[in-house]
Amino acid sequence: MSRLAANARVVRALGMRSVRQTFRRPQLIAPIIVFPTLLLAIQTGGAGGAINLPGFPEVQGFLQFMLAGAMMQSLMLAGNSGGIALAVDIEMGFTDRLFASPIPRFAIVLGRLAGTAALGCFAALWFLAIGLIFGAEIESGVAGALLAIVLVTATAMAVGGIGAAIALRTGSASVVQGLFPLVLVVLFLSSAFFPQELMIEPAKTIAEYNPLSFVVEGIREPIISGIDARATLEAVLAILGIVALGLGLSARALRHRLRVG
Amino acid sequence: MPAISAEGLERAFGELKAVQGIDLGVEEGEIYGFLGPNGAGKTTTVRMLTTLLLPTGGRATVAGHDVVSAARAVRGSIGVALQEAALDPLMTGRELIRLQATLQGIPGAEGRRRADSLLERVDLADAADRRVGTYSGGMQRRLDLAAALVHEPRVLFLDEPTTGLDPVSRKTIWDEVRALNDAGTTVFLTTQYLEEADQLADRVAIIDSGRIVAEGTPDSLKAEFGNPHIAVQIADGGVADAEEACRRLGPLLPPTDARTVAVEVESGAADIPRVVRALDEAGVAVESLELVRPTLDDVFVAKTGHHLLEEEDEAEEEQVGK
Q1: Nearest CB to A13; choose among B50, B89, B102
Q2: In B27-91, where do the E strands start and end?
Q3: Does A101 contact B at CB distance below 8 Å?
Q4: How far B103 CA lies from chain A's nearest CA (Å)?
Q5: Does B57 score more than 50 pLDDT?
Q6: pLDDT tier at B172, thresholds 50, 70, 90
Q7: Which residue of A has its CA nearest to B50?
Q8: Does A3 touch chain B (CB under 8 A)?
Q9: For residue A23, which residues of chain B lie inside 8 Å, CB to CB?
C-alpha cells in the first residue's frame, strides 16, 4: 500500500469515528439537525409573508428561500460540534493515542474535518429532503441539488478547520462550546436568513462583505432560480478562503500543541 | 544496542524543571520499573520517550531511533498505555482496537483478526461490542493494554497501568505484563507502587524531583540497606532471656516495643529455624515471629529523605475520592 493510500485510510477511519461520535452524543447532533430544523419550521411558519415585501427575491415560497440558510446554520454548527468533539478528545487524552501512532499528525485534523464534511453532506441531504417533502422545488433540478450538496459539504469542512484550530489551541471543550452564540451572530450578519437588499445598516454592509453571504448565495441560487456561474464562483472563492484560514490556523495550533505537550 | 537510552534528558515548563538530566539504559527484553511519587517526573519522562513531548535538553533513543529526529520511526516501534486510559467512552472495545490497527497501518482483514484475538486474550471478547463507557476501570485498562499491543511493538510503555485498580485487576495486568515480557517485549513501566516495582521489574530506577536517585535490581537496591531481620514477639517476662539467646545469632536491632526482640540475620528464611531453636533452648515463650526484609521504601527514604509509602497511600485515597 502506498504512503498516500495508507494516509487516506487513516483519514477515512478517523472521519468515520468522528461521524459515529456525533451520532452517539446527542449534544453534538442536536445543534446540527434538530435546532436548524426547528428554526426552519418556526421561521417558515411565522415569517412566510416576508416574500411579499418589495425587493424580496423571486421565490416559490419562503421555505424554498430558507433552505440555504438552514443548511448554513447546520454546517456552521457541525464545524463547532467538530471542534467541541476534538477538544473533548484532547481533554480525555484520546489525542495522545493518535499522536503516539506512526501517522502524519495533520491526518488527525483532516480526519476530524472529513467527519465534519460528511455531516455537512448529511445536513444538505436532510434539508433538501425536508424542502421537497413540504413542497419546495429545486429550480435547477438534480444538477442544482448536487451543486448545493457539494458547496455545503465543502463549507462544513472549511468551517470545521476553524473549530479544530480553536480546539487545538485551547484544548478546552467549554471554550469551543462558548463560541456557539458567536456562530449564530456571524450567520445572522449574512444573507442566510434574510435578503441582503432588505437589511438596514450597518448589518447590510457587514452582510455584503461577510464571506458566508457569498457561500449562502452560491447554495441558494440553484434552489430558487438556477445555477449562476458568478454566484457559484464567488461561493467557491469564499470557501477556499475559509479553507485556507481554517487549515492554516489548525496547522499552527497543532504545532503549538505538540510543542507544549 | 539498548531498547531505550537517555543521556541528560531534560524537560522544563517555564521555570519548572520537571525532568533534570536523566541518564538511563534499558536492555532488550527487560522490564524496567520507573518508581516515584506523584509529580516526580515519571509521566513527563514517558511522554518524551514516546514522542508526545519534546525534550528541552539531552537526547534519547527508543528501539534505536532518536525520539526527536526519527519520531515517526519511534512511534512505529512502541506501544503506549498512558496513565489515564486514553479511551473514547462512545466507541466499542472492538471499534477501538480496529481503529488502533488502522493507525498502525495494519491491513483491514489482519486488523480485524488481531482485534478479535487481543480481545480474547485480555478477556474482553464478551464485552467487545459494548461501549467503553460501560466498562469497569480494570476492563478499560485491559482494553488500553490490548490496543497498545495490536502491532506487536518491540517496546511497551505502561504509565502507571494499575493505579486505582482493585487487587484482582492489578494481578491480571501483572500476569499479562509478565507474559508479554516472556515473549520478548521490552517493558518500561512507571509506577508509584513499591510492590509493583518489586514484583515485576528486572531493574528499578527511583525518581524524585526530576532526578534518578537510585537504580539497580530490586534485590541489589534493598541489599544496600542491610540484611533482613527476624522480629520476635515474646510472651510476658521472657524478653531478657530472648535477647541473650538472639545476641549469639546476630546483632540485635533497637526494639520497636517492650515485648519485641529483633535480630539481624544473613540469609532470611533459612535463619528462622536457628532462631526458633535458640529461643526454645532458652525456655522463652514466643507469641509470634516475623521475617522482615528491607523494602524499596527503605531505599526511597535513604535516597530522598521521605517515604514513598505515604505518597502511595495518598494516591490510593485520591483514586478512591475520584
Answers
A1: B102
A2: 31-35, 57-62, 65-66, 78-81
A3: yes
A4: 6
A5: yes
A6: confident
A7: A100
A8: no
A9: none
Would you say residue B302 lies in a domain? no
Residues B265 and B123 in one domain: no
A1/B86 Cβ within 8 A: no
Are B205 and B236 within one domain?
Answer: no
**Model pLDDT, residue B311:** 55
Q: Is residue B308 part of a domain?
A: no
Instruction: Give the domain range for residue B189.
Output: 4-222
Reported as a pLDDT band with limits 50, 70 and 90, residue B238 is confident
Strand order in the sheet with B78-81: B78-81, B155-159, B186-191, B31-35, B203-208, B211-216
State the alpha helices, DSSP H only, in B106-152: 108-121, 137-148
In the DSSP assignment, the letter for residue B92 is: B
Domain residues of chain A, as ranges? 3-260
B121 and B236 share one domain: no
Q: Is the predicted pLDDT of residue B101 greater than 80, yes or no?
A: yes
Q: Are residues B260 and B184 in the same domain?
A: no
- What does DSSP assign to residue A25? -
Q: What's the pLDDT tens digit per position in B266-291?
A: 877 888 999 999 988 988 889 899 88
What CATH code is carried by the domain that includes residue B207? 3.40.50.300
pLDDT at A1: 62
User: B137-148 and B108-121 helices cross at what angle (nearest 10)?
Assistant: 140
Helix (H) / strand (E) element for A124: namely helix A106-133
Mean confidence (pLDDT) of chain B: 86
Q: Do residues A204 and A196 touch, judged by C-beta distance below 8 A?
A: yes
pLDDT at B22: 92
Percent of chain A with pLDDT over 90: 39
Total-model pTM:
0.80
State the CATH number of the domain containing residue B259: 3.30.70.100
